[in-house]
Design brief:
flat, mainly alpha, 65% helix, 144 residues
């Protein structure tokens, strides 16, 4: 079962990452900020504070890398298991979505770990969040 024992650690991580991003943006070259369409340049973006702009640029890059990695994959490729203890690519993609959803509920909606485990959203995402045998059985036969 998913254990929500590190919620305060995640908040500390987010706070520390925000401070690091803030420090990094202080040294951001203004010429790079103007090139906000280039996904390979991290930094401030038009319409965002410097910190949020840096976060948005990093998230856009990560999204691009994940999508490029799986582009054109067939259902068979997404369901491929390397061995009986592995996770499929499809399950790992759903795991990314589950992690994002549960972190958003905790971070933006301030849903505690205990409340989260009782929520309908948790029940929908618990299998992809935990992966393992239940995910190998349930997460298959989906196209990209």
């Amino acid at each position: 079962m998913f254990r929500c024992t590190s919620w305060t650690n995640r908040r500390s991580f987010i706070r520390n990452a925000s401070m690091l991003t803030t420090a990094a943006t202080l040294f951001d070259k203004p010429t790079l900020a103007a090139d906000s369409e280039n996904p390979f340049i991290f930094g401030s973006r038009a319409g965002y504070s410097p910190q949020l702009g840096a976060l948005v640029s990093e998230m856009n890059w990560m999204r691009m890398v994940v999508l490029m990695s799986v582009k054109g994959m067939s259902q068979e490729q997404l369901d491929f298991l390397l061995d009986k203890k592995a996770n499929t690519i499809g399950a790992l993609l759903l795991h990314l979505a589950a992690t994002e959803k549960l972190y958003q509920l905790n971070t933006f909606d301030n849903v505690s770990g205990a409340e989260l485990e009782k929520s309908a959203a948790f029940k929908d995402w618990v299998i992809p969040m935990n992966l393992g045998e239940p995910a190998r059985q349930k997460i298959k036969n989906h196209n990209l």
